[in-house]
## 1
Amino acid sequence: MKPDPVIAVDGLTRRFGDVVAVDGLTLEIRPGEVFGFLGHNGAGKTTTVRLLNGLLSPDGGAVRVLGLEPVKDGPELRRRTGVLTETPSLDERLTGRENLEIYAVLYGVPRAEVPGRIESLLVGFELAHRAEEKAGAYSKGMKQRLALARALLHEPELLFLDEPTSGLDPVGARRVHELITRLSQEQHRTVLLCTH
Ligand code: ATP
């Protein structure tokens, strides 16, 4: 028997005035899948991610994410998902480690687990040697890896990654792709990967 889908969408539609941003989208994503969601600029990827997280209401169609209704169950859903937006907002005045510490508090990570989780993310994302430097001094690739580490702090089952390699050079992009593959293969996380 196939496992229940993590994301089940049927005929999802969302308009902004005359613009149909998402037009009858139907898809299913199963546990542990890395689902590539491809589309040109303006195709509706970001709008879809916002609909799936309950940050926008659909105009039509049915959506279940982790068995929940995104708009109604938004707070629970967002506790169980991680989102990397196209332009992640790091606090550039804080160090890499402090950026993670603040999020750990916001996400309610059990206090005793915070130092260990942060350390292992910093090591896994090759940021440990620069952890005490301000994030404003990081390269674009390092900022992107820090934002990805931050999206994982609360150990979400499902990750929405909106163009996680945008602006990275080929080496930086490959590193991020390797990390995403590891998340799926070693930790069985489900990933919706939006890209051009
Ligand atoms: P990109 O690759 O450029 O990020 P995208 O695939 O993520 O694009 P969306 O950002 O979802 O695309 O936009 C889809 C369409 O919906 C676009 O025409 C956009 O202008 C429109 N749109 C998105 N959000 C809004 C909004 N809040 N108000 C009005 N129009 C919007």
Note: DSSP finds six helices and seven strands in the chain.
## 2
Amino acid sequence: MKIKKAEFVISNTDHLKCPVTEKPEYAFIGRSNVGKSSLINMLTNKSKLAKTSGKPGKTQLINHFLINDEWYLVDLPGYGWAQVSKTLKEKWDKMIRSYLLERANLFNVFVLIDSRIPPQQIDLDFINWLGENGIPFSIIFTKADKQNSSKTLSNISTFENTLKKTWEELPARFVSSAVNKVGQKEILSFISDINN
Ligand code: GDP
């Protein structure tokens, strides 16, 4: 798929106020600083579509972008800020969980995982919650340029072996680098295949 058009549509705190549409929707989420904004910019070839690293709590919004007038890319606020208050965490939880559970045109959630580090409980908990609730998702291992490919593969395999303890089937998985544009083609064709 070629991205010909990528435009910001609206930001919301309430999933009920998100665009009323039957167009397919793909959400991106991960721990703060995982490289989500950089990945979205890389996928859409727009260096400033998603904002990179804000302060904790500043980007607690569901952001809709319309791609090629065909599908929505949704930038969800990251989880796992160390410094945020319990109230903000609860707000995030309520907003994100209701969006994920109730958004009828949500076709897939891309969960971003830092390819450099061992499995983090917060990521595993989030993935398990998606699985338990039957929400379709795939995993993108980010920042692959920061190490050699054998290290990336070994970290992915550790992560997937951890998932296998709970799940019979593994989700689709991608490797990305916003610096080297790795993963762009694969992720966009995955979306294009589902759309068609
Ligand atoms: P977000 O908080 O998940 O949206 O993360 P950002 O996209 O703002 O990225 C966090 C930091 O990681 C920034 O300093 C980025 O420049 C850096 N970063 C993001 N993706 C990559 C990548 O693929 N490779 C490298 N080397 N750095 C990255």
Note: The helical segments are 36-44, 86-102, 121-132, 149-164, 184-195.
